[in-house]
Amino acid sequence: MPAVPPITQRGSVGLVLPTTQWTISPGHTGSTQGENEGTTPGITEVVTRTCREAESAGADALWTVDHLFWPSPMLECLTTLTVAATATTTATVGSCVLQLPMRQPAAVAKQAAAIQLLSGGRFILGVGAGSHPAEYDMAGADFATRGRRLDDGIAALRRAWDTAGDPTLAYRQEPGPAPVPVWVGGSSDAARRRAATSADGWVPMFIGPDHLRTSIEQLRHDTDAAGRSPEAVTAAVVVMVAVGDDPAVADRGAGWLGSLYGLPPKAFHRHLVAGPAAHCAEQVQRFFDAGADHVVAMVADDRAVDHFAELAGALSPATSVARPDLVEVPG
Q: Hey, what domains does the chain have and what are their CATH numbers?
């Protein structure tokens, strides 16, 4: 496996873009030209503005979630990241995470290569198996074999990228990108082991600081056992956040997550970091203290950038302003 330079530095904080909030009014098509007569307000402009505001607020990375079929409107993951890549200059952009077993790996490899080139080497392809059987049924994919097909898909991605520059191949994927880091999402032991053996990063969610600490220790052991440097795999974590001084902020955040996932709000209370900015920053710091290199903040509110800005402002300068060294892209 070729070495992939780290993109997010230790102590960096990213934001999940609120892709479920950008919808098109009935009877209209999406406009990229702004608020023109007869069209909806330009969704591209909304995404662009959100990305730039998040970057200015201190987001070291911008992430999008992925669902092909979902109860509420959701923009497509990689298409949205293309807009994010061209709207920003320093933030990493990435999928958190794309359900690779639902897709043809060669097509994903081509899309990922394009985003890596368009972003100037700031792209991370996060992949995962997913956990919604009904979505797999709608996509015409087999839910039961998703783990094996995820392993096969990661190998297929790397093979596709390796074809660039090989003159012996009549058909190959060109232009070739800078190395594309592949992160594996999921909190299970299988996801952690998959990251240790075949990926460049691991990003679980629904996991607390204490559990994360022991899991990262096991990740380092698994990576070493696979014959790789224990530091070869970036350890990240998704943290759900709701920032506010209102005592009801936790209930509102849990309700927001319940609506998003179609589950009772009580299912999210123990996973949600909620309260004043200083308190939330202290809780996020616990994940760094547990060994996380990068924290992905998923804001449980429609005003994601506002909440993130308060959180970033309360974090220590060493945590909130870390910036990546960009990967050089072949000219």
A: 12-22+39-320 (3.20.20.30)
